[in-house]
Design a protein that fits this description.
five-stranded mixed β-sheet, single chain
């Protein structure tokens, strides 16, 4: 769990703002859920390993001695959404489209790029099994990454039943599917030979191992996958249909193909899928659902490493700092600050009344404040404000009533 200094917060808020704007452009609505859920809401939803990573909250009072827990910190944003849909279904649209950007917590071992508290930027659609849903979710994620400046990435598609059909066609028994998929998942890390050794240890036949490695080592494409699972036996027709559905999805997402090809380093920025039975675990009604999650932490890390953030994010969070000329002028300086803020300028006021003007200018320069406003005895007598451009060093005086307009005009000129 980390602290975020101002520059960090600005980068994170920028990423979330871009993603939020894209999600809303696609018609998704905001949702927030509590940081804490009843423990039974979360347990049993993430598998054995996931259950061990849930941050449990001990019951108060005497139960602290027994270690009994009744609450837990939110593990992800998907299960809370399923609970909300089950609980408030009669108040939600038939096809509920929501986005959610909040922190989640996992009792994981900290490592580079792995944190115990991190943000997810989720977008989900419930109430339909239409392939339009997957298409729109992929398109929204693609647009969000494009607008953040990513131009060299791939959205990879799969269907678990298609994988099952390929395993069946290679002669792998159903009870061995999980073992085989676990080993295949390491292909990028340990190579063909390493996976072959894993297959042998898991008692997968040599022939099945060869067929699978030939297929996944040099992917044969979606059409070949359909042919493999369809030709094997009549029982594989459902898997072939699932593969054809993937082909339909590829056809629907054709407009985004140009912005989604290639990848220069293997970093996952997000993922998603269907969870059609999850809502039903909280109600008697089965409601289909599908979602996609972009990982804020990974996106911020990659964008920082590649210097992808707009330069103006590094600028100070104020437009102008008002100085204090002397003890007697402090109230007038505060009044000037209020006048400038009334014109929607971001204004800071130097707090120490006894510091000389040179020290105040140094402070403004250290913060990167672009302009400093000074009301000395002479300026006050003439009803003026002296303004200094900290970048150029130029200083000029303007009528006090026109100070805000003069600052805005100079700010616009500097941006050009």
């Amino acid at each position: 769990m980390r602290d975020f200094l101002p520059a960090d917060v600005r980068r994170r808020e920028y990423v979330m703002r871009v993603i939020r704007d894209v999600y809303e452009r696609y018609g998704f609505e905001p949702l927030e859920t509590p940081a804490v859920e009843n423990i039974e809401t979360l347990t049993g939803k993430y598998g054995e390993e996931g259950n061990q990573l849930i941050f449990k909250i001990l019951k108060r009072g005497e139960h602290e001695k027994t270690g009994e827990a009744d609450l837990a910190l939110r593990y992800d944003l998907t299960v809370p959404l399923a609970r909300v849909v089950a609980e408030y279904g009669d108040r939600l649209p038939k096809f509920f489209k929501r986005y959610q950007m909040q922190p989640v917590w996992r009792a994981d071992r900290p490592a580079r790029g792995r944190f115990r508290e991190f943000y997810q930027c989720d977008v989900d659609w419930t109430g339909t099994r239409s392939m339009i849903v997957e298409t729109e979710l992929c398109a929204a994620a693609c647009d969000a990454l494009n607008e953040l400046g990513f131009t060299n990435f791939t959205i990879r598609l799969n269907h678990r039943q298609v994988l099952a059909g390929i395993l069946d066609s290679a002669g792998v028994t159903t009870e061995k599917h999980a073992d085989v998929l676990t080993a295949l998942d390491k292909l990028d890390k340990i190579g063909r030979g390493g996976v072959a050794e894993e297959f042998a240890r898991r008692e997968i036949s040599f022939e099945s191992s060869r067929k699978l490695l030939d297929f996944f080592d040099v992917p044969l494409g979606l059409e070949k996958a359909i042919q493999i699972v369809a030709d094997e036996s009549p029982e594989q027709q459902s898997q072939a249909l699932n593969a054809a559905m993937l082909g339909r999805l590829v056809e629907f997402t054709g407009d985004h193909e140009q912005g989604s090809r290639g990848i220069d380093e293997l970093r996952s920025l997000g993922g998603g899928g269907r969870y059609d039975e999850l809502v039903g675990m909280f109600s008697k009604q089965s409601i289909p659902a599908c979602g996609f999650s972009l990982g804020l932490e990974r996106i911020v890390v990659v964008m920082t490493e590649r210097e992808m953030f707009p330069p103006d994010l590094a600028r100070a969070s104020v437009d102008v700092m008002v100085t204090i000329w002397d003890e007697a002028s402090a109230a007038d300086s505060l009044a000037l600050a209020r006048e400038l803020r009334a014109s929607d300028l971001r204004v800071d006021v130097y707090p120490e009344r006894r510091d000389k003007l040179g020290k105040q200018f140094k402070y403004a320069a250290a913060l990167g404040v672009p302009f400093v406003a000074v009301v000395g005895a002479d300026e006050r007598g003439r009803g003026e404000v002296a303004i200094k451009d900290m970048a150029s060093g130029e200083q000029w005086s303007v009528p006090r009533a026109g100070a805000a307009g003069a600052l805005r005009e100079r700010m616009a000129g500097n941006q050009r």
